[in-house]
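Before any further analysis, we paired sequence with structure tokens, yielding the entry below:
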Amino acid sequence: MRSERMTRICLLLALLLGAFGEARAQLLPSYGRDRAGTSGFQFLKIPVDARSAALGETVVAEAFDASALFWNPALAAQIENVQVGVGHTAYFVDIRLDYLSLIYPLRWGGLTLGLSLEALDSGEMPVTTEFEPYGTGEMFSFRDLALGLSVAQPLTDLFSYGITARYVRESVAELVTQTLLFDLGIFYRVGDTGVQMAVAIRHFGFDGRPEGKLARTVIAQTGPAKRAADPEPIATTPDPSVRIETEFETITPPTTFLLGVSYTLLRDNPQHRLTLLGQLTNPNDNAETFNVGAEYTWNHTLMVRMGYRFGVEEFRTPALGVGLRLPELVAGVQARFDYGFQHLERLGTVHRVGLNLEL
């Protein structure tokens, strides 16, 4: 009876979260692009840890380490010891993404607190225009930052919830956009069956408006065409072909609805363990996708991972990765090293490394 009751509660909350996130499920995704490019803060969608990337980004119900704060804060309530995680992603065209997180279980009220920091740096890139496609001689860079505070709590030994508040800052050239976003997640373990379910809504909150100024080169026009189609510049400059823009449209955050399930086989075998994962991902700025993954663990030491994302044109090759539990660095400290590999059809390869410490 208790298991049936918790199942009903979980399904009810899943429906409520789905309605809140406007996640209209598609059993057969159309893979359409009608919503592409309708949100900003795209760096928030990049996986920050090697394990999840290798598993095809399917860990919303199976991230019981420091990466829980990125995927589903409810999972942090299932962690008994302090977790510290660091991750580095070597992204395309020398872009780097770094991640740091801390999960600290409290004895009071069963609460668990978490802190996370995500930073993206593009490095220096040349400024190009339609008139100077090979560069103007100037340089600019993208520098993005997300700082999160999480709170999670188990309601029973099978069910938990979590909330994250995240300050997000995106800067490019002389423009800065800031906003406040939230993540909300729930987790349910179906008794001793090896099945786990989770629902999460990530990055919903307030729109951001860029602040600053941006110089833009325009074609000089004369006569009525200039007066009709080319209004006076917002700000004057010594060069009449350059305009200074100061008014910009708001940017919508990339809200995403995640529904995932995992099933662990050979749970009682001390030498072998196999976990199968599936996840439905519904973003507000693209078509729905379905991801699958598998993780094999040998002797609680070596982990081999593979995952695939259906409905994403660039991902035609399965993601791969490995994990290795290291000898205790000091008494009571356990460490796991992770590596993840992804290959995208036109953009190339992405390498990720990470280290997770359990204190």
Q: What stands out?
A: The domain at 2-210+248-358 is CATH 2.40.160.60 (Porin). The radius of gyration is 23 Å. The chain is about 10% helix and 45% strand.
